[in-house]
């Protein structure tokens, strides 16, 4: 069969518009397309390929588990799921884990749990969910409505109710809106899709305090920030703010689909038998791979390496900006970095992305005015340096027209 980009238009639903480049092989931080052209990967499958492509330990785990046990359903439990849950509990504030297949599913579980907890503890009137503009929590109808980007949730009929949005980092707005009818506040400890925006320390601490005051649960969506991305195992650890519920996915499976919701025993008790479920959630293949990912990333060497590599990126991007004056700010944390376009280039992030691909570099955008980088946490320093050379060529082409 002749597989080309045109075949996509023939057989796929048109909700995506992928690049003309079709990768066929990956290794570490490199990708090769059908023509054998080599690319450096600063996109990481949108913060998913945290150990790069085809990491030998992950390949080995997948092969071994693939010859042992694939799927059981949750009528039975399995060893990889229990081992992974134990390691997640030991490494975090949490005491209980629910497994799903994606970040959206983990967030769906978190939101359902928050509503159920409030209903059973306080009554039906306590059902308000507060989230933040430009936030992103997934594409199910509940999670996309809680997400603060109406473009993604409009046009599908009546939305789930009692969900309110305020500006990120605006503590006064939260204080004005939150009340004893609020069941949960949901936030990313570093907004990813919304432009790579960090919370201020004061804001993060203030959100926790307001949730405590009004008996509302604090849900941290760590789908993009979790599992080493910021240089801490989970971003909440770097903020010194502990959530009530945390969601994880993306990097957790290193490219194999898995999601997890983490919480305390007291809160988890409200998802009694039969209240929620997932056919594939917790399947042995995904959990075995995720256990290997966690074992590799949750080490001082890898986590401190992320912080060192962040500095390399920042220095390189600042140097490019000294020459071409196109960024107003380099922001983010760890290896989730946003280069914010200044007034002159506002709205043109996609032009930089396309120009980068033409220079054999894969990167991302976060909205129309932010170029986003989320490479492998193990990306070699040489690949960072060489990738930045390619990025500089792309920047030069855009800036010089």
From TrEMBL:
GO terms for molecular function: transaminase activity. PROSITE patterns: AA_TRANSFER_CLASS_3. N(2)-acetyl-L-ornithine binds at residues 139, 278. It holds the Pfam family Aminotran_3. Pyridoxal 5'-phosphate binds at residues 103-104, 136, 221-224, 279. InterPro entries: Ac/SucOrn_transaminase_bac (IPR017652), AcOrn/SuccOrn_fam (IPR004636), Aminotrans_3 (IPR005814), Aminotrans_3_PPA_site (IPR049704), Class-III_PLP-dep_AT (IPR050103), PyrdxlP-dep_Trfase (IPR015424), PyrdxlP-dep_Trfase_major (IPR015421), PyrdxlP-dep_Trfase_small (IPR015422). This is Acetylornithine aminotransferase.
């Amino acid at each position: 069969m002749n597989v080309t980009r045109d075949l996509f238009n023939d057989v796929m639903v048109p909700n995506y518009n992928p690049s003309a480049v079709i990768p066929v092989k990956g290794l570490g931080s490199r990708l090769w397309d059908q023509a054998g052209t080599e690319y450096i990967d600063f996109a990481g499958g949108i913060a998913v390929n945290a150990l790069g492509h085809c990491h030998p330990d992950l390949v080995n785990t997948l092969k071994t588990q693939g010859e042992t046990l694939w799927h059981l359903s949750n009528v039975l439990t399995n060893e990889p799921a229990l081992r992974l849950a134990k390691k997640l509990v030991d490494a975090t504030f949490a005491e209980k884990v629910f497994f799903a297949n994606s970040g959206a599913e983990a967030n769906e579980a978190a939101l359902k749990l928050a509503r159920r907890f409030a209903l059973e503890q306080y009554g039906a009137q306590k059902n308000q969910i507060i989230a933040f503009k430009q936030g992103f929590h997934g594409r199910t109808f509940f999670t996309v409505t809680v997400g603060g980007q109406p473009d993604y949730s409009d046009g599908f009929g009546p939305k789930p109710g009692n969900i309110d949005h305020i500006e990120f980092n605006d503590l006064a707005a939260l204080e004005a809106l939150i009340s004893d009818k609020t069941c949960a506040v949901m936030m990313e400890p570093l907004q990813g899709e919304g432009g790579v925006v960090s919370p201020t320390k004061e804001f993060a601490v203030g959100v926790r305090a307001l949730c405590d005051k009004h008996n509302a649960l604090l849900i941290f969506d760590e789908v993009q920030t979790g599992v080493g991305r910021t240089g801490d195992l989970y971003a909440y650890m770097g903020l010194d703010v502990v959530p009530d519920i945390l969601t994880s996915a993306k990097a957790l499976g290193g490219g194999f689909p898995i999601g997890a919701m983490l919480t305390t025993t007291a809160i988890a008790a409200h998802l009694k038998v039969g209240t929620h479920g997932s056919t594939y959630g917790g399947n042995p293949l995904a959990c075995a791979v995720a256990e290997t990912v966690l074992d590799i990333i949750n080490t001082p060497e890898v986590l401190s390496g992320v912080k060192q590599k962040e500095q390399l990126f920042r220095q390189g991007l600042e140097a490019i900006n000294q020459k071409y004056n196109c960024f107003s700010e380099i922001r983010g944390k760890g290896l989730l970095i946003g280069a914010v376009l200044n007034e002159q280039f506002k709205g043109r992030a996609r032009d930089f992305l396309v120009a980068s691909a033409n220079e054999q570099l894969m990167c991302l955008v976060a909205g129309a005015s932010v170029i986003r980088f989320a490479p492998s946490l193990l990306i070699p320093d040489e690949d960072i340096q060489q990738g930045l050379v390619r990025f500089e060529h792309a920047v030069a082409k855009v800036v010089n027209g």
